[in-house]
Request: fold
Amino acid sequence: MKFRMKSLFIVTLFLFASSFVMGQASLPFSGEVKEVQENTRKIWDSSKNTIVFTGSSSIRMWEDLQERFPKAHILNTGFGGSQSSDLEHFLDELILDYSPSQVFIYEGDNDISAKKSPRAIIGTLEDILGVLQTRRPEMDIVLISAKPSISRWHLKRKYMRFNKRLRKLAAQTQGVRFADVWNVMLNKRKLKRDLFIEDGLHMNAKGYDLWHEVLKNYVNHTL
Reply:
């Protein structure tokens, strides 16, 4: 009887572990994250202080990040189309595995488009910050505001509410800063429409020029 109970326990444990692994493998973006890992490890120098930029497609499509910040060792682990809840599943693979001294996070843009409330998004980001600061308490964290865009301009009020909450979250959390890329992309209250490619959502070089002007004040070369 004891042998049967022990065997049953082992089988149950095996099935649980197998289902967990399969669940991880079947998560949305798991394939893209694996590809990001493979590409990033080819250029990662663990002997250098590493700065990670991660988040949705506005980060993924920033192809000249390293050239923009030549004095820093930059890893771009952005994965297009992601929401904050997707990043939460891959904190090890996209951030923590590289032991970064600093991380820039851009999430919330796609969440708003997916009709998630600003409060719900902030809740997920709070969970993310909790994990990051528990695992690597000395890491400097920069939360990048949601950007305006032509294709999502009809949601501007939701984005503005989200950015207000994001700014407050950063102000109330030690070791976390807020970088505002929203206002620099406006001409007074009107959107600068020449900052985008044909889809009206993603930025061209002029858009990234503006982001660089904001974020260069946050990149810490001495960490």
In short: The two ends are 60 Å apart (CA to CA).
